[in-house]
Write a structure and sequence with these properties.
By secondary structure, this protein is mainly β. The chain contains 5 helices and 18 strands. α4 (267-275) runs antiparallel to α5. Residues 6-16 have low confidence and may be disordered.
Length: 369
């Protein structure tokens, strides 16, 4: 009698932890987007009068629990997208291209429709930007290369197993992080509609086994180099040195919260104070250091981590226009090494901003242990 009962329990366990479905793993998605510029500051002297038209081509892969973070993030899709924007008043604003890596998080799934949120980060390229002589009417961005961010909230309507209708609202942002002024940034609100096609169907099993994180606590040491332009559209470009130490706590295999202290040094301020006889060399150097406390959250998609953080200045705040700042960006983690695989290095990039105005664009490296 025990054997049938044991067999029934085994079947129940398998049904809960390995569900077979006939679906596609890879998909190709094409979208059309009707866009409108958001004039988020009165300092922008001109925005396109007509609508912006956008076309997107994306390739993505479904996850089935092959990695621990798949289950922790409710089996997301990951992929790359290439987007073309044709701005209104094209002679002034030109065209834009964006290549981004994205993660699509599903909020709920039914037999008819799926609801999702999608976040994308990458590079943007603009064919027209501010120029004092040739293009003075475009004071939104000052460089060809920009960082590109996008957020999408939408619904997928299941036409068949291989065809899905996509409807969504998308927000997109281009910014060079004040590396080249002007940098008010492009903000776009878009209505999105398109089709997603699975070229090939197959039988796959969802691994629903819950996996706890192998580690819970982590110390993060980080150094970043920021780049920004100041004192007018033709002003000099400065570096900002940023060192930080933080403690992180893993809440799952795909998420960690962190808090720490950061020390920033602005050598451009040292030179300005000293050259203009406003302070001695020692006093000028001391005035260029800024200390802050910060905390935030990071979502881990394999070796890529997307993070957002909030900081509060505790000293040197007189040289800052706002008491708080935000950082958003991503890290790429290299393979673990050392005793018990307790160490790993990373490289990353992010933008630091005060409210809607970017202070600098930063590249960083560091170690977790």
């Amino acid at each position: 009698m025990k054997q049938p009962i044991t067999f029934l329990f085994a079947l129940l366990f398998l049904s809960l932890h390995a569900q077979e479905v006939n679906v596609g793993k890879w998909n190709i998605e094409g979208n059309y987007q009707l866009c409108s510029f958001i004039k988020h500051t009165a300092k922008i002297n001109n925005v396109p009068k007509g609508f912006t038209h956008s076309f997107e081509l994306a390739v993505a892969r479904k996850t089935f629990g092959e990695k621990p973070w798949h289950k922790a993030l409710n089996f997301p899709e990951t992929g790359f997208s290439f987007t073309y924007y044709h701005f209104g008043d094209n002679k002034i604003f030109g065209d834009a291209f964006a290549l981004t890596h994205f993660v699509k998080f599903y909020l709920f799934r039914t037999k008819v429709v799926n609801s999702y949120a999608r976040i994308g980060v990458g590079l943007g390229f603009l064919t027209r930007h501010y120029d004092y002589i040739t293009n003075p009417n475009n004071n939104i961005v000052g460089s060809t290369v920009n960082l590109a961010f996008s957020f999408r909230l939408g619904f997928e309507w299941k036409v068949s197993k291989q065809v899905v209708l996509n409807t969504a609202f998308t927000f997109a942002h281009f910014s060079n992080g004040s590396a080249k002024l002007p940098n008010y940034g492009i903000n776009l609100a878009m209505g999105t509609v398109g089709l997603k096609v699975y070229p090939k169907l197959g039988t796959y099993s969802y691994n629903c086994t819950k996996v706890r994180p192998k580690k819970h606590d982590e110390v993060i040491a980080r150094y970043g180099l920021g780049l920004y332009q100041k004192n007018g559209l033709n002003g000099p470009t400065y570096f900002a040195h940023v060192a930080s130490i933080a403690y992180a706590r893993y809440t799952s295999t795909a998420n960690k919260v962190f808090a720490g202290v950061a020390l920033e040094y602005f050598p451009g301020l040292t030179d300005f104070l000293y050259v203009n006889d406003l302070a001695s060399k020692k006093e000028a150097r001391k005035s260029a250091f800024v200390t802050s406390l910060f905390w935030g959250d990071e979502v881990l998609v394999g070796r890529i981590g997307y993070f957002i953080g909030l900081g509060v200045y505790v000293s040197g705040s007189k040289m800052m226009t706002k008491p708080i700042y935000f950082k958003t960006g991503c890290n790429y983690y290299l393979a673990e090494f050392g005793k018990r695989k307790g160490f790993k290095c990373f490289v990353g990039m992010n933008v630091k901003s005060h409210t809607s105005v970017a202070q600098y664009w930063e590249v960083a490296t560091g170690m977790c242990f």
